[in-house]
Amino acid sequence: MSNRHLAYLCLAGAMVTVGSTVVASKVIGAGLPPFTATVLRFVLALPVFVLLMRATSTPWPRPDRHDALLLCLQAVCGSVGYTACLIAGTRLAPAAEAGIVIGTLPAVAALTAAVLLRERLARRTLATVALATGGVLVVALAGGGTGGAHSLRGDALVLAAVLCESLFILLNKRLHVPLPPLALSTAMAALGLLGALPPALLETARQPPHFPVSALLGVTYYALVPTVAGFWLWYAGAARVSGAEASLFTAIAPAAGVLLSALVLGERVGLPMLAGLGLVIAAVMLQAWPRRVVVVH
User: Fold this and answer.
1) Rounded distance, CA 287 to CA 105, Å?
2) pLDDT (tens digit, 9 = 90+) per residue, 79-133?
3) Residue 75: which of 203, 159, 228, 197 has the closest Cα?
């Protein structure tokens, strides 16, 4: 097998694990409150990342004050906010719906950059945002397999998770000294654990949680497969191909989320959901497709 084909398998595998987070979140949310589950995720993932850093001799990050603040904000948004909102959202909306909504990340990230940084939106990006918005509207207005109001609340929470992740991406671009991927993942796990701990303690004080086996298995899967293995698969693949090629594989995540929701959870996937999925995948492909470069000799 060539390096390129191996890279494609790694990237596809990574995006399948991303899609599977909606299934894991659905299982986790049925038994654990969002922030308690988030703490458990990082309690399990952090030691593995630390061992990987030692095994690969990756240096510990030493950020300046500016970057340290940005890393803390990244952890609050991308680590705590994303996980908690996704778990809370899948308690109300079907996992298949959530899988489609998380596929809007490229469009939401571009829109977030335009709003906060006043970056100009190219026509292709505007088309991407329109397609992604259309896909989410088709799914949300169809009501999925739950009641309309609950489905809309769940979709809104999942969209909030996507917004948190887009803020993570935006903040990462503002670092003075970008961190190596493994160091960044380790820092996010450590800071995410610290950030999720206070609200988790409030959840526990308000209502002591039970720890059903299914939810604990879901958290273990989320911590070790999408969080750790997904990280390794993505960066192993991305190191062998161009950024444009790698970004095309993000279209697999929403498709995997819908398929796994049907196979694992037995959720019904109707025509409106398939139509919404098609629009979201089209948006991802349009945003990620390499731009044509004109060379003047």
Assistant:
1) 11
2) 999 999 999 999 998 999 999 999 888 888 888 888 887 777 778 878 888 888 8
3) 197
DSSP code of residue 220? H
Contacts of 132 (CB under 8 A, 6+ apart): 103, 104, 106, 107, 108, 279, 280, 283, 284
For residue 83, which of 22, 173, 146 has the smallest C-alpha distance? 22
Distance CA 160, CA 296 (A): 44
**Domain range holding 122?**
3-288
In a domain, 84, yes or no: yes
Q: What is the pLDDT of residues 46-83, one digit of tens each?
A: 999 999 999 999 999 899 999 999 999 999 998 999 99
Q: Give CA–CA dist 186/42, Å, rounded.
A: 10
Answer yes or no: are the C-beta atoms of 78 and 167 closer than 8 Å. Answer: yes
CA distance 188 to 45: 10
The total number of structural domains in the chain stands at 1
User: Rounded CA gap, 21 and 25, in Å?
Assistant: 6
**How far, in Å, CA of 103 to CA of 111, rounded?**
14
